[in-house]
Description:
The complex is a heterodimer.
Chain A (H helix, E strand, L loop, with lengths): L44 E4 L5 E6 L5 E8 L13 H11 L7 H11 L2 E6 L4 E8 L3 H13 L5 H17 L4 H14 L11 H5 L3 H11 L5 E7 L3 H11 L23 E6 L4 E9 L1 E2 L5 H13 L5 H9 L6 E5 L1 E2 L5 E9 L3 H17 L4 H13 L8 H13 L6 H10 L3 H11 L6 E6 L1 H9 L4 E4 L3
Parallel strand pairs in A: 2-6, 7-13, 7-14, 9-11
Antiparallel strand pairs in A: 1-2, 3-5, 3-6, 4-5, 8-12, 8-13, 10-12
Chain B lengths: L1 H16 L1 H4 L8 E4 L5 E6 L5 E8 L13 H8 L12 H23 L6 H19 L6 H8 L3 E7 L4 E8 L3 H14 L5 H17 L2 H13 L13 H4 L4 H11 L5 E7 L3 H12 L22 E7 L4 E8 L7 H12 L5 H7 L4 E10 L6 E9 L5 H17 L4 H18 L3 H15 L4 H10 L3 H11 L5 E8 L6
Parallel strand pairs in B: 2-6, 7-11
Antiparallel strand pairs in B: 1-2, 3-5, 3-6, 4-5, 8-10, 8-11, 9-10
Helix pairs in contact in B: 3-11, 4-5, 7-12, 14-15, 15-19, 16-18
Amino acid sequence: MQRVTKHFFILLNILLLFSIASPLQAQSYKDLKFKPLEFKPPPVDRVELANGMILFLAEDHELPIVNISAKIRTGGIYEPADKVGLAELTGIVMRTGGTQSRTPEEINEELEFMASTIETSIEDESGSAGLFTLKKNLDKSLEIFADILMHPAFDKDKVELAKAKALEAIRRRNDSPQGIAQREFQKLIYGKTHPLARTTEVETINNISRDDMVDFHKKYFHPNTILLGITGDFNKAEMIEKIEKVFAGWEKVNVDYPEVPPVDTQVKSTIALFDKDINQANIIIGHLGTKITNPDYPALRILDEILGGGGFTSRLYKKVRNDEGLAYGIYSNFEAGLRDYGTFEVVLQTKTESTREAVDAVIDQIKRLTQTEVSDEELQVAKDQYMNSFVFRFDTRSKIVQRKMLYEYYGLPADFLEKFRDKVLNVTKADVLRVAQQYLHPDNLVIMVVGDRSKIEKDLASLGPVTILSKS
Amino acid sequence: MKRYRYSLLAVIFILFIYYPAQAQKLEGRVIEHKLKNGIQVLMLERHEAPVVSFHVLFDVGASDESVGITGIAHMLEHLAFKGTKTIGTTNYEKEKPLLEKLDKIVIQLREERARGEKADPAKIQQLEKEFAETQAEANKYVVTDEFSKILQVNGGVGLNATTSQDSTRYFVSLPANKVELWALLESDRIANLVPREFYSEQDVVLEERRLRTDSSPIGKLFEQFQALAFNAHPYHNPTIGWESDMRNYTREKVEAFYKKYYVPANATIAIVGDINPQEVIELMEKYFGAIPPAPKPPKVVTVEPPQVGEKRIQVELDANPHILIGYHKPDINHPDEAVFDVITSILSEGRTSRFYKNLVEKRIATNVDSFTGFPGDKYPNLFSILATPLTPHTNKEVEEGIYAELEKLKTESVSAEELQKVINNVEASFISSLASNSGLASQLAFFQAITGDWRNLEKHIDRIKAVTPEDIKRVAKQYFIKTNRTVAEIVKREKPQG
Lengths: 472, 498
């Protein structure tokens, strides 16, 4: 009875049927016929508690485990510019620094003996807290989980440990070429002081005190700033009761969020080189992306699949990797930001000597999309790939719950994905060309290269003035 | 009569009451089927969603290579995505002679270049021109990435492959209605692989080497570490290959390697997800059953001789310090494996582990990890510790701190509570691993091929439960000794040379 069987699935989408068919000899994949895929994703319940906390619940009784993940309305974008790193450190020390009634050691011992895991973190645009526990240890683990969210103690020693590690990370951040390329590319796109691109510095870490962390937590962590996704082996009604009990007495508080400067949409063109003594150039080429709410995003999504987001079937993979052998990994991502603009980037690595050749090949592919319509086959392949893998967006309850939470967090409609899928299906070749011309800027690109300056600089110079970024 | 009733009751009992409990065990759920040609098939039904994960493991890896062709198992893995006699080509009959012609030109070109200063530039130029023309001609018949494209267009996700010292694995997840498509494509690849686009792919793997090893400080550290730790055993060589070998691959050598090792007796296939096992068996017989049998290739006979003294290397790089310490230990099937797993857990798993409490929380290191099974599991390998010092502390201080913990294992008994914690965590992570089709398929194939029985995946928990404090002391005393040790560290080179 608890087992979900195929008999309960209904037809999700007839379009999951494979569409390319042409006559050929027997034993060809083209001769195969596939049954339609029948599937009804399991339901998710959304429940709002009296204290404003919103729960998303999906029971799953296959295994005796429970997973809880919280999404909290906070983020590094809200920290002051002279204390970059405050949000991240607060997220770390919430977990490591004990609570008002439990020492850090007690929490670690108790959780690890039960094989339960609790982790917390704060990213740019949100905070997260996760709990994994065996069903038999749910009550005890949930109590600690709530305690950490409500009453973190920010133990002084653990504050110092987190700060020391943050300083060490700064010291080491130029060891990895890919890390440098990503960091500097973001700064060139958003501007180096923008909250989406700024980085921790020795000074900003030193500016952060334990009191700052206490205040940051106090300001942003309230029941009404928390979305809680719960999957696993539990009974819904009992779970709601448990949640209400462990968070009892925690009151709703209205939060004033500091204003985040909007992304500057002015198109910028830069060629930048970070000198590193290695035999390979790490390259990122791109510009600003778009927002998820842009009505042209479905067409941009198809455009990106065809350019370099579609893995083995993409143009960049074929031209730059397979035909020319110029790269091992190459991809594009036309990112739609959920809150503000994302970035459009093409990422690759190539041997020092072929840096210019690879850069030219990428620019050429971007340019082509703005000049000529894609082929019928390319459009069909991109759509089939999207549609036929659609079921994998629903193949675990935790994926379904996570997505519901994400839409709620960013104020998107609950059926956003289904609507988006329908729009993707209706994209035409003319749409792809139109959005390519509107949103791709092959003449105004940011080109970020990490590599051997002595060999690369002159090759890049004929593209335009090259800015040399020093090691910070 | 009575017997029937009993069975019927038992069935109801299992289906409706004990199903959740059954889901936590593999024994009784995994279906084994061996094809006549030797392919071992393992299946597991999970009907949570209409998706299936496939995992094909060939019992061949970098340790089966010899000097001169290092990295060729990995090169072959790349070429396995280039298609077959019917996939990836518009006309194999016309393509074939062109591919052979290309090989001949390349051999002449390499010979001429190898003459160094005595090489004839005109001849090289002529050969390069011929090469480019022939390649362009051959490429006219190529349907780039058709194999991968078919899978992706049909909804395949997670399509990829990996090569290790021990094995080569190909995997993908598909909607549940595409099992036959997978069977057709994968069986064709085992039987009829054609390594086309060979020379551009050679550039791709060289690029992969630059990415993973040459420009990655940790990658370089590991390469030097394993080369130093192993004198005789092929675990000495990096999986990606030494650069000069990688520049000298020929299609002939790759094909010989493929013919020898990609035989049915060397293949294990695990399929996990929304399947009907009987239907899958029929498809496996139909598509894979026809592949002709061949003898299982021999294992490596070379045994690493006992180490006679500590080995050390300082790798000078434009990067901050790291330290990597290894002790030789037996292979995964040795009874001491479970003891090493317990030691790993006690030393470095979680915030209550000894390294975390005594090195990380004391701000001597930012990370200290320990692990078994490097560079592989099949043959005797290394128990390893990787640590990152926290400024102003040095590699040396971290190293001393690590040794202090290893010494404690030799002299002080681990408490019952510490052991119980390890068991609890091993059990919990086993249960949570059962929630992933692709993870399970990977584990089943690995344990079947490398340990000889997928049941070892579950039995391993019992072996861990049986580990005693005395076992830990004995193993620590036996293996954690200076003469059995290799130490590699990254030392910061301030100014680039040259």
